[in-house]
Amino acid sequence: DQQVKQNSPSLSVQEGRISILNCDYTNSMFDYFLWYKKYPAEGPTFLISISSIKDKNEDGRFTVFLNKSAKHLSLHIVPSQPGDSAVYFCAASPNTGFQKLVFGTGTRLLVSP
Amino acid sequence: AAGVIQSPRHLIKEKRETATLKCYPIPRHDTVYWYQQGPGQDPQFLISFYEKMQSDKGSIPDRFSAQQFSDYHSELNMSSLELGDSALYFCASSQTGNSYNEQFFGPGTRLTVL
Over the stretch B70-105, which tens digit does the pLDDT of each residue have? Predict the structure, then answer.
């Protein structure tokens, strides 16, 4: 039972354009949502997060949007850079504290020069 | 800034052997999590510890055990290894009370069971 889904296994974008990565979830108990970036042979690197009481959070080139009624969130990267090429995981957690993260299946982003 | 340290980075074992993976969390982080990532899969939660006590348990086989020590480092012990245990094992740490449950991951240990 995949509670967090990333339906696009891959995405190709040109440098300078916007990258939009999508994530859907089914568990209405999730309160916190996080995006991680992962390079091969490395651990996931935390990028940005959002709580269910917000609908947008920005950090530099990265913006996360949350539509709680649709149980959908997206990560926007603008402008995209070749160094952004990696696998991006969406993750969710019920609430703060020592709660496990439930990960999506990941989207491989390729940004070409 | 200090990050999560995992050792060893790579480990090759035979079936039915045992393995011990170590994790050193970021200083002042009080919670440690273990995740397993199989080939082409998303990370799956195994177990977590808060202040040296087990705080949550996921799909961890009975052949596996873990603990967190007084210095907050954690060890994942795996016995009677099976071929299916071959995976990347990540440790993550967090500090209680952080805003959105941000967990910071180590580089992982790649376990290969032959």
Answer: 999 999 999 999 999 999 999 999 987 766 778 999
A49: chain B residues, CB-CB within 8 Å: 99-102
Cβ-based interface (< 8 Å): residues of B facing A: 4, 6, 31, 33, 35, 41-45, 48, 50, 55-56, 58, 90, 92, 94, 96-108, 110
CA distance A69 to chain B (A): 20
Cα separations (Å) of A12 from A24, A52, B21, B52? 20, 29, 36, 44
Give the other-Cβ count within 10 Å of B77's Cβ.
13
Flag whether residue A42 sits within 8 Å of chain B, measured between CB atoms: yes
